[in-house]
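FAQ

Q: What does a record look like?
A: Structure on top, sequence underneath. For example:
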């Protein structure tokens, strides 16, 4: 007969520690890590909560969910099959994409953002930076449109 074995790892790291997580087939959950953080898995969900200096959150098959994060540079969040959901995020630049799913950036503060989906919705909400560039691309979601927003001074509001 076949056996199915599951192993969970719980890792505790001192504040400010650089953490890199790579997995093949598992969900990854990280909470409260304030050092540089990079997370990637091939098959599984990535869930990050209250993290600092996040550089990368990626999976090939699964959702990427980030609730509370900061990045000194570019924050990359991506999946091939699943949703990317970012909430309460501050970064210099944001790149978020999926092939099959939605990309949602809610309460995000950044100097520029690129949100792309081939099959889903791309949604951004947050303050727009002076001289910022925000690109939202959806090829088959609600509205099926490519939108590029650039502001030099003031706000841009788009309503359906």
């Amino acid at each position: 007969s076949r056996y199915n074995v599951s192993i969970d790892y719980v890792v505790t790291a001192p504040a400010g520690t650089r953490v890199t997580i790579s997995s093949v087939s598992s969900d990854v959950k990280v909470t409260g890590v304030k050092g540089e953080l990079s997370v990637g898995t091939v098959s599984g969900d990535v869930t990050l909560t209250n993290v600092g200096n996040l550089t990368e959150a990626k999976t090939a098959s699964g959702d990427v969910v980030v609730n509370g994060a900061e990045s000194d540079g570019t924050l990359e969040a991506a999946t091939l099959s699943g949703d990317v959901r970012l909430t309460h995020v501050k970064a210099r630049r944001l790149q978020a994409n999926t092939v099959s799913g939605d990309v949602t950036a809610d309460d995000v503060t950044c100097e520029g953002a690129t949100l792309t989906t081939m099959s889903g919705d791309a949604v951004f909400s947050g303050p727009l930076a002076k001289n910022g560039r925000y690109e939202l691309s959806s090829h088959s979601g609600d509205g099926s449109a490519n939108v590029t927003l650039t502001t030099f001074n003031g706000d841009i509001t788009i309503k359906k």
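Q: Is there anything notable about this one?
A: The longest strand covers residues 64-81.
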